[in-house]
Write a structure and sequence with these properties.
globular, 14 helices, binds magnesium ion, binds adenosine-5'-diphosphate
């Protein structure tokens, strides 16, 4: 993409409304624009990041055996009356009346809808287990939307739902998602810690929030330090094998958000291992048994021929929130530092003297070669000053900056900068290409 033809409305000044660094940088780097309180338009650069996150989420869901579908954003109130939540949900739910005076709503979540779909389609235990997910916009009329996409009113979420015949099998479904979440956040360049969360009326130990540590996080969290760097299972993980050890290694160490915090248990952690910090909830997995299946008649005939309400769980990932979360975890004074896996472009190609025939030609060749090698590249071919170009590149945080100017070209070199470390080297264009492609 040539910057001269792109849509990248960056801001020089810090926007006054942004209180935390990720919100500030998302506005400044032209990733999003607010269109109403807590509602954001995703501009091209932000959308590219969102799509990269979605792709990783999808791949790891598929690896764990979950199947994608897509449910609508607008739902009928009748479904929610069946579960009793139409009245119970509260003012976070955006209620809508259509022209026929029918009550509708903009979905804050999809338990009811998926239960209805599943119940109409699956009659036998032989069709179990299943885990269905979608990546769809949600609306929650948060009383205090803030911190940009971190706590928005309209936001993109991956929400998945598992259906099993019995609790033991539902536990297996839960463990698969637990492991899948560890892998997903790891691939996004984040260190997410599963923490015991409130299970509501069901009780038990099957609710975890996945938290990334950040000073600006909304939750106070307490955990054993060893959880922070605990290695994550590789892509050869066998989801049909025994996942219990992976989960035990984490759940046997103390980790809780303030809601579930048990100061006495935390005191039992050796003092040098006690970490009390702030965190951002990027995912939440939850087992809720037959709450919806019993209320809505989602039953199958079991091996004994009797109708059995299904055991269900739900599994959420805050896809939009993750964009902010990743920036909170990875930035410096100059701007964003995208982890390679989610960067909107891998390389920023900087032409130091647009209009100079030799420099333009060298850039054009590099641009073509990068694209031919399948490397995404944003080519700054504008006639801005060099200093402004460097600031923009640092601000938008692409992993590599490839800088081409007349002086270097005279001695046959270009400059390659790694955004994360600031490390710069001068090398031949071919060597620079090889280095970028090989990384
Ligand atoms: N208002 C919001 N803005 C952005 N992301 C959100 C918002 N609310 C929830 N999320 C994301 O969706 C995930 C699943 O939501 P859920 O656990 O149902 O919400 P909550 O924790 O607010 O009850 C959360 O872990 C979080 O990452
Ligand atoms: Mg939650």
């Amino acid at each position: 993409m040539r910057l001269s033809r792109y849509f990248l409305p960056t801001l020089k000044e810090n926007p006054a409304e942004a209180q935390i660094v990720s919100h500030r940088l998302m506005l400044r780097a032209g990733l999003v624009r607010q269109t109403a309180a807590g509602i954001y338009a995703w501009l091209p650069l932000g959308l590219a990041v969102l799509r990269n996150i979605e792709k990783i989420v999808r791949e790891e869901q598929a690896r764990a055996g979950a199947i994608e579908l897509l449910m609508p954003t607008i739902q009928s109130a009748d479904l929610w009356r069946q579960s009793g939540r139409f009245d119970a949900y509260g003012p976070e739910m955006l209620r809508i009346v259509d022209r026929h005076e029918r009550d509708m709503l903009y979905g804050p979540t999809n338990e009811e809808m998926i239960t209805e779909i599943f119940k109409g389609a699956v009659k036998s235990y032989r069709d179990l287990p299943r885990n269905l997910f979608h990546i769809q916009w949600k609306f929650r009329d948060e009383i205090r939307p803030r911190f940009g996409v971190m706590r928005g009113r309209e936001f993109l979420m991956k929400d998945g739902y598992s259906f099993d015949l019995d609790v033991e099998s539902a536990r297996r479904a839960y463990r698969k998602m637990f492991v899948s979440y560890l892998r997903t956040f790891d691939r996004l360049g984040l260190r997410a810690i599963p923490m015991a969360a409130d299970t509501g009326p069901i009780g038990g130990d099957m609710s975890h929030e996945f938290i990334i540590l950040a000073e600006t996080g909304e939750s106070a969290v307490f955990c054993h330090r060893d959880l922070v760097d605990m290695p994550v299972p590789g892509d050869d993980i066998d989801y049909d094998g025994d996942l219990e050890p992976v989960i035990r290694a984490r759940t046997e160490l103390y980790a809780a958000t303030d809601e579930k915090h048990d100061p006495a248990a935390f005191e039992a952690v050796p003092e040098d291992k006690r970490l009390s910090a702030r965190g951002i909830e990027v995912g939440h997995i939850f087992f809720f048994g037959t709450k919806y299946s019993a209320a809505m008649g989602c039953v199958v005939s079991g091996p004994d021929g009797r109708d059995t309400p299904l055991q269900m769980g739900s599994y959420g990932i805050g896809v939009a929130r993750l964009v902010g979360g990743i920036i909170e975890a990875s930035h410096d004074d100059a701007g964003i530092i995208w982890p390679d896996a989610v960067a909107p472009f891998k390389v920023g190609l900087v032409n130091l003297k647009s209009g100079d025939a030799e420099t333009d030609a060298a850039c054009a060749t590099l641009y073509d070669k990068l694209q031919a090698a399948g490397v995404t590249v944003l080519y700054d071919d504008t006639d801005e000053r060099a200093g402004a170009k460097f600031s923009t590149m640092d601000l938008i945080g692409l992993p590599w900056q490839l800088v081409v100017g007349p002086r270097g070209l005279k001695s046959g070199v270009v400059e390659l900068k790694r955004r994360a470390t600031g490390e710069k080297e001068e090398l031949s264009p071919e060597a620079a290409l090889a280095k970028i492609s090989g990384n």
